[in-house]
Design goal:
About 35% of the residues lie in helices and about 25% in strands. It is of the alpha+beta class. Strands 1, 8, 9, 10, 11, 12 and 13 form a seven-stranded antiparallel β-sheet that branches. The protein has a six-stranded mixed β-sheet with strand order 14-16-15-17-18-19, with helices on both faces. The two termini are about 40 Å apart. The structure holds guanosine-5'-diphosphate and manganese (II) ion (MN). Guanosine-5'-diphosphate binds near residues 54 and 96.
C-alpha cells in the first residue's frame, strides 16, 4: 500500500521529522474556505501515487491566494502517469539551498533493511551515479544507531550541524520504517534550507501488503494498480498485464513463466497472464475466464499442470464457461497431471483443442494470434 505524500508527511511530523505544515483540498471551493489561513508563498502539490510530479507540472509555487487558486484549478483533474489528480496539498514553501536524498528500503539480496543517502537529491535516484549513493545495511535486531548515522552523514558535503540533523532524520525514518512495516520510505528531496535547517520536502512511504492489517489507521491508495488487476487481486487471482495480445492462464508462477517463454519461442507475445494457483473449485476457473475475457485477448491459452488443482476440476470449470456464457475468442489447452485424460476428453467433447504437448499447443496459439492480428479472425 502506497501512502500519499501528505499522509507520509503526517507520519513524519508525528515522528518528529521536520516537514512543512500543509492543507489538503479537493476543490477550489474547499480552498476558498481555508485560503485566508495559509501562509504564502505556498507550493501547490498534486497528490498522486507516483513520482515525477514536478516534471509533469503537478508542483507549482504561488505567492498569493489568487495565484494559488489558478494553480489549484489547473492541477486538479490533471493526469500524471495515467493517474487523475483528485487532491492537492498546499504546503508552506521553504527556501531550499541543497537537495539531499534519503531512503530506507528492504535490501532483498542481503535480507536486511538498507539506508541510502546522497548529496544528489531532487532528481530521480535512478539517474544518480552509483558512486554518489551511500548505502548501509542495518541489523534489525540492534537497529539504527548513532554510529550508523555518523558513518553515513560524513560522506555527504554538510556542515557539522546539518549532518547531525540529517542523522536525526535517518534515525526517525528508521523508527517509522520498523513500526509501520514499510517496504520503502523515501525523502527526496531532503531539503537543507538557506538557514541550515533540514526539512523533508517530499515523502514516499510504502507499507508491506502483508502487514496492512496492522495499520488500519492509514488509508492508502492502490490506484496505481489497473482496475482489472485490482479486481483479480480481490478475488485472490494473480493477474499481470503485458505487452502482447495472447491471454495465458496457467497454474503456478513457474509454469506461467514457462508458458510465456514457449509463446515467445514461437514468435508470440503474452498479453495478460492469470495464475490460477491451487484450487479445487470450478467456480474459480469461471472467475478466471471472466477476468480474462475482460482483458480482451486475441486467443486464450490454458496451460495446466494438475496437482492440487486437478485437471478435471479445471476442465469442468471451462466446460461451464463454454456452456453458460460461451467464449468469443479461440481457446487452446494443454493439460497434464492429475486426471489429465479425463480432463482432455471433457474439453474435446466441448469442442476445445486439448493436447498434452506444450510445443504443439504454444505453436497453435501463436498461429491463431497471428491470424487475428492479420485481420482474418481466428
Ligand atoms: P516529485 O517531483 O513528485 O518528486 O515531487 P517533489 O515533492 O519532490 O517536488 C519536486 C521538486 O519541487 C523538488 O525537488 C524541489 O526542487 C521542488 N520543491 C518542492 N517543494 C518545495 C518547496 O517547498 N520549496 C522549494 N523551493 N522547492 C520545492
Ligand atoms: Mn520528490
Amino acid at each position: 500500500m502506497k501512502l500519499y505524500e501528505y499522509q507520509g508527511r503526517e507520519l513524519f511530523l508525528e515522528a518528529g521529522i521536520p516537514a512543512p505544515e500543509g492543507t489538503v483540498v479537493e476543490s477550489v471551493e474547499a480552498f476558498d474556505d481555508v485560503a485566508d489561513d495559509l501562509t504564502y508563498p505556498v507550493v501547490v502539490k498534486a497528490q498522486v501515487l507516483t513520482g515525477g510530479r514536478g516534471k509533469a507540472g503537478g508542483i507549482k509555487f504561488a505567492d498569493d491566494e489568487d495565484e494559488a487558486r489558478e494553480h489549484i484549478e489547473a492541477i486538479l483533474g490533471m493526469t500524471i502517469s495515467g493517474l487523475t489528480v483528485e487532491k492537492v496539498d498546499l504546503v508552506e514553501a521553504i527556501d531550499i539551498d541543497k537537495e539531499l536524498y534519503a531512503s530506507i528500503l528492504v535490501d532483498r539480496s542481503n535480507r536486511l533493511p538498507m539506508v541510502m543517502i546522497s548529496d544528489e537529491g531532487g532528481v530521480e535516484i535512478e539517474s544518480v551515479p552509483d558512486e554518489d549513493i551511500h548505502k548501509m545495511n542495518v541489523n534489525p535486531f540492534t537497529g539504527f544507531n548513532a554510529y550508523h548515522a555518523r558513518q553515513l552523514t560524513q560522506r555527504l558535503d554538510l556542515t557539522k550541524d546539518e549532518a547531525k540533523q540529517v542523522g536525526n532524520v535517518l534515525a526517525k525514518m528508521y523508527k517509522i520504517f520498523q513500526e509501520r512495516d514499510c517496504d520503502l520510505i523515501e525523502i527526496n528531496p531532503l531539503a537543507v534550507t538557506s538557514n541550515g535547517e533540514v526539512i523533508a520536502a517530499d515523502s514516499k512511504v510504502t507499507i508491506n501488503p502483508a502487514a496492512e492489517f496492522r495499520h488500519q489507521d492509514l488509508e492508502g491508495g492502490t490506484e496505481d494498480i489497473p482496475p482489472l488487476e485490482q479486481e483479480a487481486n480481490e478475488k485472490g487471482i494473480a493477474f499481470v498485464k503485458l505487452e502482447g495480445d495472447i491471454g495465458v492462464i496457467a497454474n503456478g508462477a513457474g509454469l506461467t513463466m514457462a508458458t510465456l517463454d514457449a509463446l515467445e519461442h514461437y514468435g508470440g507475445n503474452g498479453g495478460v497472464f492469470l495464475d490460477l494457483g491451487g484450487t479445487d473449485d470450478p467456480a474459480k476457473v469461471k472467475t478466471c475466464f471472466e477476468l480474462m475475457t475482460k482483458a480482451e485477448p486475441s486467443v486464450i491459452f490454458l496451460n495446466l499442470f494438475g496437482g492440487i488443482t486437478k485437471a478435471d476440476t479445471v476442465a469442468e470449470g471451462v466446460v461451464q464457461v463454454l456452456e453458460e456464457e460461451g467464449l468469443d475468442v479461440p481457446l487452446v489447452t494443454r493439460i497434464r497431471g492429475v486426471n489429465e485424460e479425463r480432463a482432455r476428453e471433457m474439453l474435446q467433447d466441448a469442442g476445445v483443442t486439448a493436447t498434452q504437448d506444450l510445443k504443439a499447443a504454444a505453436k497453435k496459439t501463436v498461429q491463431l494470434d497471428k491470424n487475428v492480428q492479420a485481420g482474418g479472425g481466428a
